Amino acid sequence: MDYRTLSEFLALAEKLKCYTRHSWTSGGRQESVAEHTYRLCVFAWLVKEEFPQYDMDRVIRLCLFHDLGEAVTGDVPCFWKDEKDERREEEALEKIADMLPHPYNEELQEIFREIHKKQTPESRLACALDKLEAVIQHNEASIDTWLPLEYQLQLTHGQEQCRDIPYMKELRDAISRDVRDKIQREGSRQDSVEAGYTASSDRRKLNFKRVVELMRQSYWAKDRSEEMIRKGMEQSKAYGLYDPDGYMAGYARVITDEVSMFYLCDVIIDEKLRRQGLGSILMDKIIEEEGHLRGILRTRDAVRFYENYGYKVVGGEDKTLMIREAR
């Protein structure tokens, strides 16, 4: 292939790095089409042993080129795409294939036809993987990036494509459980954010009497003296969670050298206000301010909650020791 043809086709493919999808990343920015394509190919490679009867190299090639038309049209989310959008993409694919000499153009045309018709086992698997990668990506993003219709779409997207492929159906069922957990956890948090709850490390907002009341609700500090609670608060970086009227609904302490590590302790939400996502609002603020440091904590009953923030279990008996690496 001559240099001019090669460079022009690569320039076209580069557009996939520029065009963004509706999905957002866990880091809080919209993902590019190229990023989706890359991870879809990784996804296909990771499950290849589950499909010994399939030509998995073919599946990966289908994944690699499945969104190439979007280098011309840009991304249109499935719930907004209509017949006009589909015709535009088909026309774009024809022009893209014509950019290449024989036999590349014929091979690419055949890939595009196979993707469109979905008549081969490989093309149906590639389509199922494509749908699930999108659901996984949404799960990794903050729920406040979801449109209202996506709460239901997250539970149904890809079901039809996965239904007749046993392993993919198992994956879809497992992902659906994660979706429900996320909606329950973060959906309630979003409701609480909209209700005006905020977290802060501003000491001027702290109410010592409320801190004592909250500590009395904990299993680890219910017998701690007020003097110990006061000293702990004064000698730590203290966080409060507040409703719109300034009422203190939660509390946490961070012990840190402000250089390399922080130890998280005394995390508590008022027992009357739990299961509303308030703990997530408090932790979001702590990670925002301390997440560049290595985090350490011990917990007896909240391992899964802290795993959502990158903590991993490293040991412990009565209380589990967890560590979060600096970001």
CATH fold group of the largest domain: Hypothetical protein af1432
Oligomer: single chain
Mean pLDDT: 92
Number of domains: 2
| CATH homologous superfamily grouping of the largest domain | Hypothetical protein af1432
Tell me the β content. Answer: 15-25%
Shape: elongated
Would you state the CATH class of the largest domain?
A: Mainly Alpha
Characterize the main sheet.
7 strands, mixed
Series of H and E elements: HEEHHHHHHHHHEHHEEEHEHEE
* Structure annotation, total helices: 14
First-to-last CA distance: 43 Å
Q: What is the name of the CATH architecture of the largest domain?
A: Orthogonal Bundle
Structural class: alpha+beta
Number of E strands: 9
Strand order of the largest sheet: 3-4-5-6-7-9-8
What is the helix content?
A: 40-55%
Return residue spans where pLDDT drops below 50 for at least 5 consecutive residues. Answer: none
From the alpha carbons, calculate the radius of gyration and give it in angstroms.
Answer: 25 Å
Gist?
The chain is an alpha+beta fold and 327 residues long. It has helices spanning 3-18, 33-46, 56-65, 70-73, 83-98, 104-117, 121-140, 150-156, 159-162, 166-194, 208-216, 226-234, 278-290, 303-307; strands spanning 20-24, 30-32, 198-200, 237-242, 248-256, 261-269, 294-299, 312-315, 320-324.
